[in-house]
Amino acid sequence: MKILVISAASLFLSLGGAAVAQTTTVVVPGEVKTYVEKQDTPSVTFEGDVAVGTALPDTVEIHTIPDQPDYGYVVVNKKRVLVNPKTRTVIEVIK
């Protein structure tokens, strides 16, 4: 019985930790969004949904943002997308 209770508690805690990790939000500086919105960059086609957390393939060129090494951008399926250039994951889809 103790083993069952300990196992259930471990499972609950591990799932709770995963839920907390998924709710992390990134606060993007306003000047980053302003810069990206002003760029005249051609759109690339990407199969599938482009959402926060999506990893972009190496074939998609990520553009740099001056003085902002933690952010990159790309226009995908006619949507401006902020990307972490190190992991290639989408941080935010700009409306």
From TrEMBL:
It comes from the Bacteria. InterPro entries: DUF1236. Keywords: Plasmid, Signal. Residues 1-21 form the signal peptide. Pfam families: DUF1236. This is DUF1236 domain-containing protein. It comes from Rhizobium phaseoli.
